[in-house]
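Why do we care about 3D structure at all? Because function follows from shape, and shape follows, mostly, from sequence. That is the central idea of this module. The next example makes it concrete: a single protein chain, its amino acid sequence, and then its structure expressed as tokens.
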Amino acid sequence: MPKLKEASLVTVLLSIVNVFAFHVIRLSILLPFLLFSGCQSLQEAQMLRQKKIKQQMIQKISRLNKISPDYFWAEEEIHKSVNQYRVSLGLNPLTLNAEISEVAREHSNNMANVIVPIGHQGFRERVQQIRTTFSVVSSAENVAWNFSSLEPCYVAFRGWVNSPGHQKNMVGDFNLTGIGVELGDNGSYYFTQIFIRTP
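And the structure:
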């Protein structure tokens, strides 16, 4: 009788070992999949968090500078500063034109998104685009960029005043202007001002 109990005990122990081995094997098959899924979920969560932080930073910079999402405030500020400067020198103020501003805005956007380098690349094409609406006698363009978190418009304007070439454009014989401002992902502001003389 004791031998029968021992045999039953061995059978039970073998059954437990078999069940345990089965679960260990199943776990070893599932574990890499679970780890991969967990890593992928963690990576997606981190990417989502980084994107959210980036958006919050841009919104914070915009709030600090009182700039609307479309940066119309900044464009009006540049227009006001340039006109005050011109009037102080006895020159006529420039009329801000929506169509010309749209062309300037596109160039600032392209610079902010590194589609074109910071500069005047494509200026001839921009003037040609403006010619579809206006008869253009003469034209000029100022561009700028800066990381100023407090006064980006003032920094751009003062930079133009202190640069002989840009200052010459600001006081030129023009009557229309278009201004475009864009904020890049790197926190830098990009400015384009186009000057136009019509008959």
